Amino acid sequence: MKYFFRKIHLWLSVPFGIVVSLVCFSGAMLVFEKELTRMANPDMYRVESGGRQPLPMDVLVEKAGAELPRGVRITGVTVSGNPGEAYSMSLSKPRRAAVYVDQYTGEVKGRQERPAFFAAMFSLHRWLLDKGRPEGRPAYGKIVVGVSTMMFVVALLSGVVIWWPRTRKVLRNSLKITAGKGSFRLWHSLHVAGGMYALVLLLVMALTGLTWSFTWYRSAFYSVFGVEMTAGGGGRDDGGHKHDKPDYASWQRAYSRLQADNPHAVSITVGDGTARVAFSRLGNPRAADRYTFDRGTGRITSVTRYADAAPSGKMRGWIYSVHTGSFGGLPTRLLWFFAALLGALLPVTGYYLWLRRLRRNRG
């Protein structure tokens, strides 16, 4: 039986191991993207209140808008629950771009776009740097990542069968990282013990990650949890007015109402006729109550509580949270980071052991 699973393990690992290693490594690099980006330029995000009240949003948007290139507009303002953090103003383009503004002085602190390194890591992680083409060619890299991830799941499970110890002594020895007894013992123990330590987390990452690769898998995954997959992901709603000039004073009025009703919110984001109140740092980080408001008066017209949101929307947030390890804050993210690094190391150590065996057999 173990002979059969060794063959399965080898035949799947050799052709797909390189892709698995790249996907795991790039995933590990993305775990602390936000923190590293902020560490690189901390002054852009921090402000000193000095006991002052923030300027109205319409004033801040006007000041920030004057420094934007032609054709770029502000689509939303995010206010952190921490008064020492600058306001973040989302831009219409490029994707994920924002400017940070000192809400007490109106000074534009800087413009953030995703750093090239993290943009490359994300593209590598999702599509192997192949996003498809404007004429509609599919992203073959996405397919390769998905297939490789499925093969990785089978390789992990077959590895458990190969590893399964017969005695308690063998179990203890198989879970030790052996250094100082030659390169072969070190690499072998890293492959075996490292794989066992990271096994559960790597399976969790792989099984949740596949939901971004294949629609059929995503539907099946949702069905396992009794959730019907629906279109849409709770993205921005322009309310059908994206070509009109917003009344930014109404944004301030809507924000003031929401802030008064949600004094402990993690953040409040206000856009043109829509708003979002995030209230949890742990669990599902995308959990939020969503509002609409009158674009002229700022009066709240409707609310969709997170507790009453569509199950598919909650499911998307939880899949992301579990895939990235963000549901438990820093401790789980650290675990996911090291597990992903071990996942990247497994094919490397496996190739070493395989090539060493080939040389020995030929000698």
Task: Explain what this protein looks like in three dimensions.
This protein is α+β, with helices and mostly antiparallel strands and 363 residues long. It is built from eleven helices and eight strands. It has helices spanning 2-30, 33-40, 57-65, 116-127, 140-163, 168-174, 183-209, 215-224, 248-261, 311-324, 330-362; strands at 74-80, 87-91, 98-101, 108-112, 267-271, 274-278, 288-293, 300-304. An eight-stranded antiparallel beta sheet has the order 4-3-2-1-5-6-7-8, with helices on one face. Strand 5 and strand 6 form a beta hairpin. It is elongated. The two termini are 28 Å apart.
Biggest sheet strand order reads 4-3-2-1-5-6-7-8
Strand content: 5-15%
Number of continuous helical runs: 11
Based on DSSP secondary structure assignment, what is the total number of beta strands?
A: 8
Q: Give the low-pLDDT segments.
A: 233-240
Distance between the termini: 28 Å
Mean pLDDT: 91
Give the helix/strand class. alpha+beta
Q: Looking at the chains present, what oligomeric state does this protein adopt?
A: single chain
Helix content: 40-55%
Instruction: List SSEs in N-to-C order.
Output: HHHEEEEHHHHHHEEEEHH
> What sort of overall outline do the alpha carbons produce when their principal axes are compared?
elongated
Radius of gyration: 25 Å
* Largest sheet, strands/sense/barrel: 8 strands, antiparallel
